[in-house]
C-alpha cells in the first residue's frame, strides 16, 4: 500500500486508537485523520480531498443511523466507506451495503479479518460478512429518494429530523433563513413528503436495528 490517507470516524477515542494501531502494524506508512462526530467527519473530508478510505462507525453524535454513510457517499462518491460497528445484525449489514458502503466490519472481528477487509477495499474490492438478510426494496427506494437531495439539502434534512426551526437551521448551517425555506420546500417535493414531520420520520427510518446476531 502506498502512502495513503485514511479517515477513522468513531466517537470512542480508545477504539480510534486501536484501529490506528492495527493499521500501523499491518500496513505501510500512511496518514491518519480522525473524526468523533458527523460534523467533524464532514469537515475532515472537505479539508482533505486526498482521503482514500473512510472507516465509519454508525453511532456518532450528529448522525441518524446510516445518515453519515449516505452523506459521504452522496458528497464524496469517489471515497469508499467501510462501516465498523458493534451492531452486526444481518439487516444492518445488508442496509450498509445497499446504502453504498464498500465493506462492513463487526467490531468483534479478529484483527486479521479487519486487516483483510481494509486491504480488500483499498484494492478496489468489497468485503462483507455472510448475511442472512435479504435485499430490501424499501431500503433501495429510500436510498434512491435521498440520493435526489443535494449535499446542502441533506444537511437541512438532518436538521429537520432534529426538530430545528428554519431560524435555527440557518444559524446551524450559516445560511440565510430564506435560503433554508427554499431548501425545505425542495426537500419536501423531492421526498414526496407533505410536512416537515413526515420528512423527519423518513430520516428515523435510517436508524439501524438494535441488537446483534446470536
UniProtKB/TrEMBL annotation:
Residues 5-122 form the Response regulatory domain. It comes from the Bacteria. PROSITE patterns: HTH_LUXR_1, HTH_LUXR_2, RESPONSE_REGULATORY. Residues 142-207 form the HTH luxR-type domain. Keywords: DNA-binding, Phosphoprotein. The modification 4-aspartylphosphate is found at residue 57. CDD domains: LuxR_C_like (cd06170), REC_NarL-like (cd17535). Gene3D superfamilies: 3.40.50.2300. InterPro entries: CheY-like_superfamily, EvgA-like, NreC/VraR/RcsB-like_REC, Sig_transdc_resp-reg_C-effctor, Sig_transdc_resp-reg_receiver, Tscrpt_reg_LuxR_C. This is Response regulator transcription factor. It comes from Diaphorobacter limosus.
